[in-house]
Amino acid sequence: MNRLLRLTAVFALLAPLCLVAGCKQGVGDRCQVQSDCDDGLLCVLPAGGTPQAGGTCQTQGGTGDMAASTSTDMAGTVPDMTNAPTDLTPTSD
User: Fold this and answer.
1) CA pseudo-torsion sign 74, 76, 82, 88
2) Helix or strand run (H / E) with residue 61
3) Considering the domain boundaries, does residue 8 fall inside one?
4) Residue bearing the bigger pLDDT, 90 or 33
5) Which pTM was predicted?
6) Residue 79 pLDDT > 80
7) Does pLDDT of 8 surpass 70?
């Protein structure tokens, strides 16, 4: 009977750990596949990224917090050149 009591106690302590492992990711959290994200979220991979490298969970409308995004793709971004240096002559130091 003592062995059964110990086995039950071990199971009772380990059961919550198994439940935590099945939690879904929220907005901005890391994901590798669609099933990693909460319902209503999409797993968005960076441009040229792979599922192994991972991405972030974002809302379907694309209005999620992009601060956690790891994408460095700046296609379509117009740089502000108003404070660029005027002398672009190459020099040899």
Assistant:
1) positive
2) none
3) no
4) 33
5) 0.43
6) no
7) yes
Residue 21 has pLDDT above 70, yes or no: no
Runs of H (alpha helix) within 1-93: 2-20
Arithmetic mean of pLDDT, 9-27: 70
Record the tokens describing residue 17, joined without a space: 């750990």
Please identify which residue in the block is written with the tokens 């750990």.
Answer: 17
CA dihedral over 73, 66, 41, 61, signed as positive or negative: negative
Q: Are 27 and 57 in contact (CB under 8 A)?
A: yes
Return d(Cα 37, Cα 58) in angstroms, integer. 8
Q: How many domains is the chain built from?
A: 1
Q: Are 56 and 41 in contact (CB under 8 A)?
A: no
Asked if the structure places residue 40 within a domain, the reply is yes
- For the cut 70, the answer to whether the pLDDT of residue 88 exceeds it is no
**Residue located via tokens 């106690």:** 9
Supply the range of the domain harboring residue 45.
24-64
Q: Are 44 and 56 in contact (CB under 8 A)?
A: yes
